[in-house]
Design goal:
Elements: E1 2-6, E2 16-24, E3 33-35, E4 42-46, E5 51-54, E6 61-62, E7 66-69, E8 76-80, E9 84-91, E10 111-113, H1 114-118, H2 120-131, H3 135-149, H4 158-169, H5 176-182, H6 187-197, H7 202-220, H8 226-232, H9 238-249, H10 253-257, H11 263-270
Antiparallel strand pairs: 1-2, 2-9, 3-8, 4-7, 4-9, 5-6, 5-8, 7-10
Helix pairs in contact: 2-3, 7-9, 8-9
Length: 271
């Protein structure tokens, strides 16, 4: 697999975390890939062949070529149907709101075609990105599109941004009460703000970030005790760790640590 990561324009850095590309032949890509929740919304352009999605308890279906995937609270299983060529825009947890034409919470665990979100402009950027002949051109096109959509630079809630930064710095190990007290904000007000701006409550985002930290530990450490890993990331005990791990990945830690290195974690190790 060939992947690259790119930084956004300085004036978009408050909203966009990064761009990345993935290119691979079908026989070089795992048959099925589990995208693990990471607390971010992504805009995805498949300029290669289609991907198929396997929803939990439902029939599989082909994903659109271009779409936004909302906040995930469960594993999102996909399968390449051929050659992979994908361009991603990864937003900060609180970064997609200025571009959203639907309530952020309504997008949870969903894929929304760009036309539904942006109308004719969505269709136009789809064709431009799919027909572009280089990553540099795709970045130029998407940044022009995002600047045109970004009509209000002040549409940033700095309290939420600050608390998101705190959650990330603490690897998700602070409680909602601690976050509300540290930032002098009522707990209920904090939960409402997060739900409307991020699509996840502060507890769910913290849980997601804490699990991501544990997953990266599995990738970077040659061998580790699951009990030690659980306590390092402040899970109550090993049973609590395994429960959350399976909720987000669909696998137990031992299954994951065996032969199930997931493509999404390659992405997350980059971003």
């Amino acid at each position: 697999m060939n992947w690259q990561i790119f930084e956004p324009h300085n004036d978009l850095k408050a909203f966009v975390k990064c761009y990345w590309t993935l290119e691979s032949l079908k026989d070089k890509t795992p048959d099925k890939n589990t995208i693990v929740p990471d607390g971010t919304i992504k805009m995805i352009f498949h300029y290669g062949d289609f991907y198929r999605h396997y929803p939990e308890g439902g029939n599989s279906y082909l994903l659109p070529k271009c779409f936004v995937v909302g906040q995930l609270t469960r594993p999102f299983v996909v399968e390449p149907t051929g050659k992979t060529g994908t361009f991603f825009v990864r937003f900060h947890p609180n970064g997609f709101l200025p571009f959203a034409s639907l309530p952020i919470k309504q997008m949870e665990n969903s894929t929304i075609p760009l036309e539904e979100l942006f109308g004719k402009e969505g269709l136009a950027i789809e064709q431009e990105i799919l027909n572009a002949d280089s990553t540099a051109m795709r970045i130029k096109l998407i940044e022009t599109f995002l600047f045109n959509q970004l009509t209000d630079y002040q549409n940033i809630d700095y309290i939420v941004k600050s608390i998101v930064d705190t959650i990330l710095t603490a690897n998700g190990q602070l409680t909602v009460n601690q976050l509300s007290q540290q930032n002098n904000i009522n707990r209920r007000q904090l939960v409402r703000k997060f739900s409307s701006i991020i699509g996840l409550g502060p507890k769910q985002l913290s849980k997601t970030i804490r699990l991501q930290t544990a997953l990266k530990s599995l990738l970077t450490q040659q061998k580790t005790s699951l009990t030690a890993l659980a306590y390092e990331n402040e899970f109550y005990d090993q049973a609590h760790f395994i429960k959350d791990f399976k909720e987000f990945t669909g696998l137990t830690p031992k299954e994951f640590y065996g032969d199930h290195l997931k493509m999404s974690l390659i992405f997350d190790s980059l971003a």
